[in-house]
Amino acid sequence: MDLISFSLMVGIVQLLLGLPMLLQPDRVDRWFRVISEDDLWLRSLGYLWLVSAVLVLFENATVGTDVAGLIRLLAWATAIKSLILCWWPKPLIRLRQQIYGVAVRRWMGLAPTVVGLLCLAAAIHLKEM
Fold this sequence. Notes:
Elements: H1 3-23, H2 25-36, H3 39-59, H4 67-87, H5 89-100, H6 110-128
Helix pairs in contact: 1-2, 1-6, 3-4
């Protein structure tokens, strides 16, 4: 998979998660609670993201300080997190709850929204190169 496609995928998914967290955190909180109890859903999600990250890293796995290198670093982080999600989903959910708390709050949507916008900007930058 090329870096542009991966960056677009990550950017869109981050925006699809971050914007509702900013606008309606209560609904997202209920949704997260349902998902965190479904082991099959969590593992399937982890497998899909692991495959996409490995496809990116299969072409070139070198990390650098340019935009392409940073997207590969994001692919490495995605691969590691997805592997943990595939094998140990419950400890990952508990870790998220220890860091952020049990309930979803409005400010928690800021980080995925910013990451999503940066990934979309990276895809545009890579497309122009």
